[in-house]
Each structure stands twice: as C-alpha cells, then as structure tokens.
C-alpha cells in the first residue's frame, strides 16, 4: 500500500516504518513469473487486486479492491477473456458474484488461508445468535458458512448497521479493535487458525510497531522510492480503476 501511495503521489514523501512490512499475497506473485503466466494468455484483460507489487500493477490493465472488484469485472465486455491476480480466493468469489469465467493466478494470503473450518463450526455452536462475517479472501468453504461477505470497510459498516449483537469475524483480527471502539456494546469473536494457532494475524502488519513509527516520523525515513518509468506503468491501471468507479 505504501507503493500505491507513491504511485499516486510521486511528489510527496511516502514513509514506511519497516521496509520489510510487505504482503504475503504480493510475495506470492513474483513479477517475472507473472509475466510468463500472462504470455500464456495473450488475449486476456488483466485485472489485479491492489495487494500486489508495483511491478505486477505495471503489467495489469485494471486494478481493483475487494470493495469494487465485482462491479469492475461486470463492466468489462462479455466477450473479453479476463485474467485475475493475485488472490485465488478473491478471484473465485468475484467469478461467482459476477458470473464471468476468470483465469486466476494461484496466489493466496496466508492470513485468510489460516482460518480453521472446525474452529468456526465450534464457535457457531457456542454463539448460535452470532452472525458470521468474512472477507472474500477466505477459502470458499468458509464463505459458504458466512452470513455476510465483504471488504474490510464493508465488514465494519455491516457490524454498525446490523441489529445483531455478536459477530464471528473471518479476517485479519486487527479490525476487531476498531469494531470494539465503534460498538462497545456488541461482541466480536476472533476465529483461531488451524490447530488453534494465531497465524491469522498478519506478520507483516505487525512489523510496523509504535517504536518504529516514532523513529520514522523523527528521522523521516525509510521512504519509498520508485523508478519513474515503473511508476507511470503502474499508475495507468489504477487510473483506469478510478475512472471506472466514477
């Protein structure tokens, strides 16, 4: 996301407290391997989820978010073959919701892959009045058990608007903090990972600590730097997204 900020605002300083705080989903789609994949599908229109590297964005025709992916894909011509990257779970969900057949890059987010169906079922039995809400990056078997599926912002809004008093959350657990602040009278239940692990917490997000943030603001580094040719190529599909979202 820091790279995306730099792509959109090249004249501004973009800081990242820890340059290693990347994304497992982006790591799962190396630009050279993605280039070879694209060459096998030369007639495909490339739609890439925003959680990818600038180098992958630069090879894309359109960028999407989990909030707008379905609507953007629906706008594409029906006879246009589409390649979707990098998240396979999000891609499959977009495919079902849009009714379009997608060629999907086999990437995944380790956080959303870590949730345990067994743990979810146990929580559903324990909290029978709770609604299950999930991010579309979760695996299909978990989405089928969910009452609502949406992006992080849509999950937050859903919990605010719903009359339900308790929710079982299938996404990175950091959002529970905001939910509990906004709705202190409601109950938000975290789903553990497979074998009860806490691997549903993004390890990259947790690299950006308060101590590193303070140091970053004091020293105004490390900053994101980007080759201008790459930035311009990566900007084009983001601009297409913004234009199609108007």
Compact overview of the structure:
This protein has 246 residues and is an alpha/beta fold. It has helices spanning 2-8, 24-27, 31-39, 54-57, 69-75, 88-98, 110-113, 117-126, 140-143, 152-161, 175-182, 210-219, 228-244, and strands at 45-49, 62-64, 82-85, 102-104, 131-134, 148-149, 166-170, 187-190.
Description:
With 246 residues, the protein is α/β, with parallel strands linked by helices. It has two domains: 2-109 and 225-244, Rossmann fold, CATH 3.40.50.10800; 115-196, Rossmann fold. The chain has helices at residues 2-8, 24-27, 31-39, 54-57, 69-75, 88-98, 110-113, 117-126, 140-143, 152-161, 175-182, 210-219, 228-244, and strands at residues 45-49, 62-64, 82-85, 102-104, 131-134, 148-149, 166-170, 187-190. The protein has a four-stranded parallel β-sheet. It has a four-stranded parallel β-sheet with strand order 6-5-7-8, with helices on both faces. The two termini are 22 Å apart.
């Amino acid at each position: 996301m820091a790279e995306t900020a730099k792509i959109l605002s090249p004249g501004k300083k973009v800081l990242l407290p820890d340059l290693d705080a990347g994304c497992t989903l982006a790591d799962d789609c190396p630009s050279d391997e993605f280039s070879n994949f694209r060459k096998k599908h030369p007639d495909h229109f490339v739609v890439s989820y925003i959680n990818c590297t600038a180098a992958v964005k630069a090879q894309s025709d359109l960028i999407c978010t989990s909030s707008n992916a379905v609507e953007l894909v629906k706008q594409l011509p029906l006879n246009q073959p589409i390649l979707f990257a990098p998240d396979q779970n999000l891609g499959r969900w977009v495919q079902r919701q849009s009714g379009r057949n997608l060629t999907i890059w086999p990437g995944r987010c380790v956080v959303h892959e870590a949730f345990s169906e067994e743990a979810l079922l146990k929580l559903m039995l324990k909290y029978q009045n709770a609604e299950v809400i999930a991010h579309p990056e979760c695996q299909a078997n978990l989405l089928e058990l969910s009452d609502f599926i949406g992006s992080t912002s849509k999950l937050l809004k859903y919990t605010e608007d719903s009359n339900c008093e308790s929710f079982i959350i299938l996404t990175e657990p950091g959002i529970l903090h905001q939910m509990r602040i906004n709705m202190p009278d409601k109950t938000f239940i975290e789903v553990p990972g497979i074998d009860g692990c806490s691997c549903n917490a993004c390890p990259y997000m947790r690299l950006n600590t308060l101590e590193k943030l303070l140091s970053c603001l004091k020293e105004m580094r490390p900053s994101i730097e980007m080759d201008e040719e790459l930035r311009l190529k990566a900007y084009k599909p983001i601009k297409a997204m913004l234009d199609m979202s108007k």
